[in-house]
Specification:
Layout (H helix, E strand, L loop, with lengths): L1 E2 L5 E9 L21 E8 L2 E11 L1 H4 L13 E8 L2 E9 L11 E5 L4 E4 L2 E4 L2 E5 L5 E9 L3 H30 L14 H4 L7
Antiparallel strand pairs: 1-2, 2-4, 3-4, 5-6, 6-11, 7-10, 8-11, 9-10
Length: 205
Amino acid sequence: MGVSSNDRVSGRIVAAVVPADANDKGPQLKAPDALAAKVRVEPYSQDGYVGSKVFFEDLSFGEVSQLGGMSEQTQGMFNLQFQRTGDLVSLNGRVDLKSVPPHGSDVQFVVAFPARVAKTNGNREDDSTVSWKLPPGDVTNLRAEVSYADPNTRSFAGWAGIVGGITLAVAAIIAALAYINRNPAPPGAPEGFSFSSMRRPRQQV
């Protein structure tokens, strides 16, 4: 998974097994109805494994939790939750692989954040990327914390900047008009006449 600075999540899931026979297609995942426009599922067949490959894009933090319901077999196995509190974003997850055979299984989870990861119980691939090796036959808890600006706060700051710019522009126009009309023409004077036009130029000696 990759988390953007706008709190949107994209990535892919591969679920595959060694087929038991020629008719075995492996795990068959299906996009949840509510995420049909953001999730694409394709058959997977590579290196002797068969199953499903899932691509997802632009999911909100709330929508990520629905990825665990793509199959009856995966119900309750994966529980991932992203949560924001101010500028702090936390990932908390629980992966139950008790029903997965301990031999011949390889389960990994990787997530990349838009900023340095402050705390995690996973393995740091680099400053902003964390991975977990999930042991089959067991339950694993996932935790990570990262701090970056709330996109809603950034949007408000941008809007405030635009309003401030407009206010300054209006003030500049008013000031310019006041400067131009600082010496109004006396009553009865011809159009375009002002006191400033009566001032005689300074003569050079």
